[in-house]
Design goal:
Mean pLDDT of chain B: 97
Helix content of chain B: under 10%
Structural class of chain A: mainly beta
Largest sheet of chain B: 7 strands, mixed
Mean pLDDT of chain A: 97
Distance between the termini of chain B: 40 Å
Oligomer: heterodimer
Chain lengths: 107, 118
């Protein structure tokens, strides 16, 4: 099975800042990598698929990059509504594992 | 508008069974693979199972293989998850989600809570 790791596990930042969350796969997954945002008590929301394709309706301050085993989610100009937990997921090979999550908190 | 609505959650004793349903609307259900994802209280997301649009292929997490069965009825636009031999560690909110062909889980239901406890 492919293992997914994320760093950092938590992050404090201020409104207007730029942050980056990294995700690493235990083996190559090409670009079969998605990013999700989840707020407490809510279902996850797909932000980015295929490593760098922004889902329709997602603000352009979110961007994704990477290929192979190393991926990055970057959020520019943080807004109050961006404080949430972020997960990566590989869809290269089942089981389609998620990363453990990164909690983004307001500083 | 695409919608997914889970049902069937509840309290069950260890070793018991439960069947979850996910009613889909607003899209051509048979055109999309579907997945189940769960989240234990205070924990992260765990992918559980997936099924292709035709239902011809199914996939499972190691933690549920042999105990859970995913299926679908395209005539009823409904996805199912039959959960047998339930364990305390299966306690979680279970979400159904629509798979994008290019990867990623696009539309999600609101989730249904399964509690396994004596």
């Amino acid at each position: 099975d492919i293992q997914m790791t994320q760093s950092p596990s938590s992050l404090s930042a201020s409104v207007g800042n730029r942050v980056a969350i990294t995700c690493r796969a235990s083996q190559t997954i090409s670009n079969f990598l998605s990013w999700y945002q989840q707020k407490p008590g809510k279902a996850p929301k797909l932000l980015i698929h295929a490593a760098s394709s922004l889902r329709s309706g997602v603000p352009s301050r979110f961007s994704g990059s990477g290929s192979g085993t190393d991926f990055t989610l970057t959020i520019s100009n943080l807004q109050p509504e961006d404080f949430a937990t972020y997960y990566c997921q590989q869809s290269y090979s089942p089981p389609y594992t998620f990363g453990p999550g990164t909690r983004l908190e307001i500083k | 508008e695409e919608q997914l609505l889970e049902s069937g959650g509840g309290l069950v004793q260890p070793g018991g069974s439960l069947r979850l349903s996910c009613a889909a609307s607003g899209f051509t259900f048979s055109n999309f693979a579907m997945s189940w994802v769960r989240q234990a209280p205070g924990k992260g997301l765990e992918w559980v199972s997936a099924i292709t649009g035709s239902g011809g292929s199914t996939y499972y997490a190691d933690s549920v293989t042999g105990r859970f069965t995913i299926s679908r009825d395209n005539s009823k636009n409904t996805l199912y998850l039959q959960m047998d031999t339930l364990r305390v560690e299966d306690t979680a909110v279970y979400y159904c989600a629509q798979d994008l062909a290019a990867g990623g889980l696009d539309y999600w239901g609101q989730g249904t809570l399964v509690t396994v406890s004596s």
